[in-house]
Amino acid sequence: MWIEILKKDLMKQKGINVILFLFITLSTIFLASSVNNIYLVTNGLNTYMEYANVSDVMVVFGGGAEREQFQEWIKSRSEITEYDCEELCEIKAEDITIKQADATSTLKTNGASLYLASIGSKYAKPLDNKGNELSLAPGEVAVTSWMMEKNALHIGDKIEVYISDKAYSYQIAIQSRDIMYGNEMSGMARFIFCKDDYNKMVSGSTNRKIEVYGYNTTNPKKTLDAMNQQEFKFLVNAFERSIYSLLYVFDMIVAALLIVVGFCLILISLMILKFSLSFTMEENYREVGVMKAIGMRNFSIRKIYLVKYFALVVTGAIVGFLISIPFGKGMMDSVSKNMVLGDSTNTAVINLVCSIVIILFVTGMCVVFTGKLKKISAIEAIRSGDSGERYQKRRGLCLYKRKYMGTISFLGLNDILCNTRRYLVLFFTFCISFVLITVPLNTLTTMESDEMASKFNLNPDAAIYLETVEEQGAAPYHNTKDLEHALRRIEKEMAAKGYTAQLSVGALCFIEYTINDVGDVIKPLSNYPIGKNGSFCEYQAGLAPKLSNEVAFSKKIMEENNLEIGDIVIVKIGGKEQKLIITGYYSDYMQLGKSARLNPAIDISDEILSGYWKATVEMETALTQQELASVLKKEFPQYNWVTAQEALDANIGSIKSTMQILQIPMTIMLCILIMLISLLMMKLFIVREKGQLAMLKSIGWRNKAIRLWLVMRMVWVVILSMIVAVPLSMLCNRFVLRNIFAIMGAELQIQVEPQKAYVLYPVILLVGIMFATYFATGSVKRISTNDMKIAE
Predict the structure, then answer these.
(1) Where residue 698 falls among pLDDT bands split at 50, 70, 90?
(2) C-alpha–C-alpha distance, residues 650 and 496, integer Å
(3) Confidence grade of residue 791 (pLDDT, cut at 50, 70, 90)
(4) Do 234 and 343 have their domain in common?
(5) Domain identity same for 45 and 61
(6) What is the pLDDT of residue 53?
């Protein structure tokens, strides 16, 4: 019996059942795959760190001058259980040439620091795609996945390394998974060789060599505090194990956004479900009355509806579950290239659990929605739900107050106001759909905005940027004097060819600050402006440091160390201590939101720089950054000219391209679904209002006028929903997107492109809805005056 009832019900309302099935399927796909992927990344990161044997603390020294002193200090610390040291040799991108079958090209690095290294390190070990330690024969090299993807490299291609006036050729044998150097967010990459090849290249080389220490300790904070008290001049940076998780946080943004999409689709599914149930019960009022009159209980009647929708929900969830597995794997491709995720064979259980939760939740809401049947008496049901009495005043518009409003437009708006509850489903569906379209759109707009560029200390108004300022063949610069000379040299080279330009750069180094009377020490990344660099930077409070005794810290450092504007800190530069006053604080993405900005008057020429930020080129030009970059690449091919957006993309990684790939398909999918919903809702309205439409025909209304009236009702619903959706979208920006971007360490104002977000996309949605609605009203032609019935 139940199967027969189910067949008849499913065939009777095919359209709305198909739409409900699609929404349940899509919400299961997005929700299950996204939750699964976030689980894989968070838990896979722990597995990855175990495979790579990440130590509790990593310490970087800019050379081996203090090797003995540091190792003696390590041995004196009882809380340090073990340690190891790895040597890396610095190399420039132009010293590495790609040799492929049909071409030779230079290496593209997006400004990342490059190092040569050998296999055999104990901590932060490079691995193959299965999580095994690398094994390389002489003449072979392992390259990180993002470097291979950026340069379109394949296994078997060759690279040529120029070092100490000699060229060494190696074949790419392995695409490595490198936890410390294998993610674009780290700004570093290393090429791994066997020990003999590495020693052959770097022995006698003048290239800078750094030493990376890893050690395990029972109390990382205590050890780091004690280490900061030592006067290690060549200590560049030190960080704890927890820093690795932040390198992969952008990989979870897409998954987080798709979870939001999944929840929104579930809400839309529930609203369609409620409307479908209400319409079905109203259509079957007489049958319900007869069943109650012959003694059937409420639950028995409710079961008839619950079986149908339970079957729909289960079918949709099963299909969604099956599709979510390959869909999730596709989403994880970009992440798995950089990580070793370990065993992911049992992760389908997570998809299954999410699917079951959706089934239980939606079925539970069906039980709630069918509760209306309890209130219906047998007499009311036989009279189609009407008691024949109405005491409240009917809402609506007054015609005499709207004399300048067209008849069609007036009737359309009046119908909505008189039957508000009937249009709530459409109203909320359009609202949520609009928000869903704007979420990825605003995310991309923010990633391409001046606001995002400034958070990475990039001036979007500069004429152009330089990735490196060294002369061809020269070693990377690690002091401010060399940097200043390089800037003046490039200015002269440009002037010789008719370009009047001013160059500036942000020199980066890790400087020690004593922040209180107790003697607590921090050593954040400090940005020292050479030239005009930094004048465009914004401050959340206070002012930029200008005098020789001023400094500014990021908001994160201020909050974590209970610092305030006006406090005095003691900085140690070149072995000398100096008092600095905090003049302000800011929020940016440098060093994951933990950095300092020095004043330009202080002298740090004795400090060893860890690097420098993109060199800014300021000059008068009518060309865009893209056009100027093309021109300067021809004039000065020895330098790598980049736009602010290219520099920004290099730091964001592949997340932007992933969002761009997803945006258009998601928008098209939502538009199609909304058009289908509009079409089916209008068909249901026409069925419900058949008698009223017949009456309009009997008094002389033509088909065209009736169809325009029905379309105008939908237009008004769209307009009213857009008015409400705009503030909803702003709330989503504030409490969802802003918090996602804040994970990386900076408070970011979500950027909106009004022409796209509030004009173009709503108009596209409106046109699609109007087209679907007008198509649905075609059935009006088949209504005749014989279909009239008594209506209030």
Answers:
(1) confident
(2) 31
(3) very low
(4) no
(5) no
(6) 86
